[in-house]
């Protein structure tokens, strides 16, 4: 296993993380049902611990809280050996207040997560999705309260645009609140939008980036093809998140299969290995519905792509430059660059 520090902290985490979103036996989202019981969850957690993974990710809303419960049981007395990350923000309960990022809901949800995980503290507590109603100051005050009370060690966020994340960092600096150390964001060969604005922001702010859905909801596993665009029982046939441009996506999958053959590997392993070559990525969250999928994903950390293979994938999937991004190089004066010896 490879390791790194998360953001500008001394917290050492594995470069592969385990996502427990699939834990539980019930509806995850409309149209998608989880079917992992405690026995299989125990086997998966044991396997990834043996592989050297020490970062585990879940959320209070996953399978109505079952994911946290099962992860806590599976870790058992090994809890202090690992870093647990969970999230708050999506609906959990029937009351109108059982959602969002209000001070009330965050505090209440933290207390619930602690009970379900059977732990005294959460290592990384992340706000899961922007709340269009709650003022940012209120949300950040609640997170700071949790850190000061020792219930949470570090705070992070997920799925926020760069401009709003920058506003939150500014508020944290102004009031001396606990600073964000990590951002959990979608990133894959089928979706590199993150590179436009968010990656430069995160690097400047000293945040680590945790990647969710590195296989674009399974699309990059190779099971989706032009001849079989909707495999039986495949999750994307019912829940197409994250969105994928399937025509260009098929080209990516074809190239992944070619590179995979060179390494006696799978397309999924190549897709994850490519992400691990990016210096701005701290850890890639992998998940599975069965042990064979888990074993396949774990092998990606040992796959060494050649510079030529990385360049091929970079070029094939390069996101189009967006305004004002394509204007930025014009800020360099040719005469000044020459005088300074900048190429």
UniProtKB/TrEMBL annotation:
InterPro entries linked to this entry: AKR, AKR_Detox_Biosynth, NAD(P)_OxRdtase_dom_sf, NADP_OxRdtase_dom
Domain of life: Bacteria
CDD domains to which the protein is assigned, alphabetical: AKR_PsAKR
Pfam annotation, one family: Aldo_ket_red
Domain called NADP-dependent oxidoreductase: residue spans: 15-316
Name of the protein described by the UniProt record: Aldo/keto reductase
Species for this entry: Trichocoleus desertorum GB2-A4
């Amino acid at each position: 296993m490879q390791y790194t520090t998360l953001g500008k902290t001394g917290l050492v985490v594995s470069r592969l993380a385990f996502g427990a979103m699939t834990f539980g036996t019930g509806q995850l989202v409309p149209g998608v049902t989880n079917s992992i019981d405690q026995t299989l969850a125990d086997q998966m957690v044991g396997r990834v611990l043996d592989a050297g993974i020490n970062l585990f990710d879940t959320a209070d809303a996953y399978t109505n809280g079952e994911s946290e419960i099962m992860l806590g049981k599976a870790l058992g007395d090994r809890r202090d050996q690992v870093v647990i990350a969970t999230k708050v923000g999506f609906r959990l309960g029937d009351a109108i207040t059982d959602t969002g990022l209000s001070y009330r809901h965050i505090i209440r949800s933290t207390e619930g997560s602690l009970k379900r995980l059977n732990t005294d503290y959460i290592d990384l507590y992340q706000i899961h999705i922007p709340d269009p109603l709650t003022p940012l100051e209120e949300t950040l005050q609640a997170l700071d309260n949790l850190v000061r009370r020792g219930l949470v060690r570090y705070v992070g966020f997920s799925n926020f645009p760069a401009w709003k994340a920058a506003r939150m960092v500014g508020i944290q600096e102004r009031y001396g609140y606990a600073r964000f150390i990590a951002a959990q964001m979608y990133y894959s060969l089928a979706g590199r939008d993150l590179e436009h604005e968010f990656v430069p922001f995160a690097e400047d702010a000293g945040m680590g980036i945790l990647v969710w859905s590195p296989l674009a909801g399974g699309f990059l596993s190779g099971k989706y093809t032009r001849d079989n665009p909707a495999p039986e029982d495949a999750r994307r046939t019912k829940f197409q998140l994250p969105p994928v441009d399937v025509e260009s996506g098929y080209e990516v999958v074809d190239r992944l299969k070619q590179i995979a053959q060179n390494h006696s590997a799978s397309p999924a392993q190549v897709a994850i290995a490519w992400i691990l070559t990016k210096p701005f990525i701290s850890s890639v969250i992998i998940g599975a519905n069965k042990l064979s999928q888990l074993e396949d994903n774990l092998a990606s950390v040992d796959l060494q792509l050649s510079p030529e293979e990385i360049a091929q994938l970079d070029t094939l999937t390069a996101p189009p430059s967006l305004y004002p991004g394509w204007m930025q190089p014009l800020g360099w004066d040719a005469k000044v660059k020459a005088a300074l010896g900048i190429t």
